[in-house]
Amino acid sequence: MNKKFLFAGLGISGLLIAGITGLNHYASGQAKRAVEDALYQWKLDTYIRYETVSHNVLTGATTLSDVTLYHDAFGQVPVDIESARLTGLAFEDEFLTEATVQLSSATLPVLDVARKCSSIRCPARYWSNYILYAGYQNLTVDLSVSFTADLEASSVDLALTGEAPEFGDIAMKVALERTDAARLWETGAPLAANLIQDGNILQTLFRGNMKDLQAVIDSTRIVELAHLEASFTDDGLLDRVFASKELDLLTPAEPDDFREQLATTAQGHMLTVLEKGSIRPSVAESVSEEWKSFLMEGGEISLETRMDRPVRLFQKGGFIGIRPNPELSNPPEFLRRTRLTLEHS
Q: Looking at the predicted structure, is the pLDDT value of residue 183 above 80?
């Protein structure tokens, strides 16, 4: 009797496995068509290449393997990604309200980007030379980005984590309020697709639908920052930066003395900026001391806002009718308005 139950159990298990395998195969075909349609709709089909698409019906995860990204943002230098995984999709009234994207082993050829990235269509030129200066010719990152929108509460939560061996780990969480996510999705998606294709915001604005542009501006202008926390854990970046700085000297210094000298200079610069911004001396001293401690010892540096009420990210003005809120774009004002804390551990 027990053997009959055993064989029956094995048979049912086999049928389940075969069924799930068949469903996965069917779902992968459906997912492949959905990915192709999405890339075409967002005008990404000429910039993204991949080998395979698979979908797991049990986890709901869709995975693209052996992905290669080409775009003017990186000077058309190929960025190879071992896999891109999309999970946790949720919709409300046909609008996307939850999603998580995970990129595994995304390799950025920093040296090639720095060489080829020179035009205004290539924003990587602003940071690639700094990374190259620190001694990184290539940088490999595991990246995860998640998004959650509450349409009824008009709020959006964003989270990002990144791990780069011999560089460092980053984590960030942002809470936004007064976000009309549905309206932004309807009017902003076409503009975002054009921006991806153009690589130049001015070109996108001039050839876009002015009605949609105005709707995006009106919706964006009222968005408020409710909370921000971020951290960076050093895994070799600081040592490389200080070593590169030391190579610039005509007369080599003792490594420890040199590092302390630079850290003290950086602390003094931060202290001066904060004091000129009328930040209380005790707060300015505390923040600058934490910064110096991180530069000297490495480890983790973290920041967190403790504001009493949300603050708008933007305000009226500027070329297109919207500009960053000075309370957030000016470091002393940002510190004062958000009651930011900085901590080294």
A: no
